[in-house]
Write a structure and sequence with these properties.
mainly alpha
Length: about 60
């Protein structure tokens, strides 16, 4: 999907450097995908810490 977004030139240059992409669109796509992945991982971690998933193992068994 195509969209138009205003992004500061300095920020865009840094995004391109961080992603290793030479073109703007692939760099933005990569950084947005990474953001979504990290947010999902953070949410998953929160759910684990809150005990949303049952484990048959004890803490001692997990630590082994």
């Amino acid at each position: 999907m195509r969209i138009t977004v205003d992004i500061d030139e300095t920020v865009l240059a840094e995004v391109m450097e961080l992603t290793g992409e030479k073109k703007k669109s692939p760099a933005i796509s990569k950084i947005v995908s990474e953001y979504v992945k990290r947010r999902r991982a953070k949410e998953f971690g929160r759910l684990i810490m809150e005990g949303a998933f049952d484990s048959a193992l004890t803490n001692e068994e997990i630590e082994k």
